[in-house]
Specification:
By secondary structure, the protein is of the alpha+beta class. The chain is 16% helix and 53% strand. Strands 8-7-6-5-4-3-2-1-15-14-13-12-11-10-9 form a 15-stranded mixed β-sheet.
Length: 220
């Protein structure tokens, strides 16, 4: 009976420890107009018997804009202590475009479900990249950024204003699993776009992301 109490106490303690959230909210502006909100939560978890981080992004259009362009996007990422991707899910909806992607573990390797397309240990996606920046995780000078099956040669550097500049070049040997992606993924990966990320390293938060190409400007 005494052992049972200890087990229950331990499980309660673990449920508390592994449910602590860090939640950050962002306003998403399109041409300077506040059109949507994004909430990011980071939570400790256990995945495949490994201590990991569960990172969720939820994006919803603001009321009024919801009438013209209803948007509901969810991105879920699980990474291990080395910031390697263990699991990814995308569930997005906007007018005429709905996307759903999910990965699975096969022999400790991460594949998109129903495909032979693998997310390798050394790949980043935009979400694990942002997580690396706010946690000052050391990154290679050049790396692979994965997007729904597509691969990009990427590098990131700080300019004189201490802003991170993300440079991307698509590897044309890989084809996306999705013909038409959601608007925010599209914005990040626009060809020849300028991508700027401003990080407050002391607070461990991203202060602003700016994606610009010509007259197209999206900020969070």
């Amino acid at each position: 009976m005494e052992i049972k109490k200890y087990i229950i106490g331990f499980l309660l303690l673990m449920s508390f420890v592994f449910s602590l959230d860090k939640i950050v909210g962002y306003k998403i502006n399109y041409f300077g107009i506040h059109v949507a909100d994004c909430t990011i939560s980071v939570r400790d978890t256990i995945y495949n018997d490994l201590i990991a981080k569960k990172i969720e992004y939820n994006v919803d259009t603001k009321y009024f804009f919801d009438i013209f362009f209803p948007l509901k996007n969810q991105y879920l990422l699980i990474v291990n202590e080395l910031n390697e991707i263990l699991y990814f899910k995308k569930d997005t909806s906007q007018p005429k475009v709905s996307n759903y992607l999910e990965t699975e573990l096969i022999n400790n390797r991460v594949f998109y479900k129903g495909t032979s397309i693998e997310i390798k240990n050394n790949y980043y996606n935009i979400f694990s990249l942002l997580y690396s920046l706010i946690n000052t995780i050391t990154m290679p000078e050049k790396f692979i950024l994965e997007r729904e099956g597509e691969l990009y040669d990427a590098s990131i550097n700080k300019n004189k204003n201490m802003e991170y500049i993300l440079n991307l070049s698509k590897n044309n040997n890989h084809v996306s699993l999705i013909e038409n992606t959601d608007i925010f993924t599209w914005a990040v990966f626009m060809k020849d776009a300028k991508r700027k990320i401003i990080v407050n390293e002391q607070l461990g938060v991203i202060e602003k992301c700016v994606f610009r190409k010509g007259i197209v400007l999206i900020t969070a």
